[in-house]
Prior knowledge:
Number of helices: 0
Structural class: mainly beta
Radius of gyration: 12 Å
Largest sheet: 4 strands, antiparallel
Helix content: under 10%
Amino acid sequence: LLSIAGxxxxxxxxxxxxxxxxxxxxxxxxxxxxxxxxxxxxxVTLGREYKATSVRVSVTDxxxxxxxxxxxxxxxxxxxxxxxxxxxxxxxxxxx
Length: 96
């Protein structure tokens, strides 16, 4: 599950999967506005940073769903994701 704090983001809890040689994080935002972009995505854990290998955003019926993929990681400790939503820097703690 995820939580996110940001001026433009109104996300809902999502999911984290760590298998198939990748980490996949999915979250939703029920107030994406007219344009919804997610850029500069980094996963931070155990003092290391991992750049996203892919990001997919879809907006359906006024809800954005964001799927972000990172390289496979075997250990997590208080992981956080840093990103920009519509150009504004934000971050969230990944709860697992």
